[in-house]
Amino acid sequence: MAMLAKQGWNIMIKPESLVARMLKARYFPNTSFLDSHLGHNPSYSWRSIWSSRHILATGCRWRIGDGTKGNNWDAGKINAIFPSNVAKNIFAVPLFDIQGPDVLIWKGDMNGLYSVKSGYNMVMNMKQGTDDNNGGHDWFCVWNAHVPPK
After folding, report:
1. Which of 100, 92, 90 lies closest to 67, judged by CA?
2. I need a labelling partner for 130 at 20 to 30 A (CA). Which of 82, 121, 140, 146 fits?
3. Greatest CA span in the chain, whole angstroms?
4. 93: pLDDT confidence band, cut at 50, 70 and 90?
5. Same structural domain, 34 and 79
6. Residue 150: inside a domain
């Protein structure tokens, strides 16, 4: 599954590649890969790559640059909660001093790039029900518990 997610990652970060353009035109012309649907009569390769979306959805994050792709402001909620003059001031605050477009990154790797190894580790953590904050602490407590011998 992690190897299939690598193909999905390549579709997302290299949208100009021939494979990405072909799959987008056929299966998700009006949306992103993560929001795509399986579609009618999908090919075996598309069905396989599509089935790995949950891995990418779990580990992908936006590194905000100029704020054009990340969709961080939820204008409807801000306008609903705050008066219009306060909301206007909130929207005027620059979030970052980073030039360049927003970039999709992988949270499971220090470089922000997806690898099969980091994807596999995430799948195994999801399967075991652990998260990044746990770090195996529960098992550490079990194995170090002072209990009578068998």
Report:
1. 100
2. 146
3. 70
4. confident
5. no
6. no
3-state secondary structure of 62: strand
Rounded to whole angstroms, how far apart are CA atoms 54 and 126? 11
- Distance, in Å, from the CA atom of 87 to the CA atom of 10, rounded to the nearest integer, reads 38
89 to each of 48, 64, 86, 95, how far by Cα in Å? 46, 20, 5, 12
For residue 107, being part of any structural domain is answered with no
Domain identity same for 11 and 44: yes
User: pLDDT over 90 for what percent of the chain?
Assistant: 43
Residue numbers of the domain that contains 87: 65-101
3-state class (DSSP) for residue 117: helix
Q: Is the pLDDT of residue 135 over 60?
A: no
- Say yes or no: 48 and 70 in one domain: no
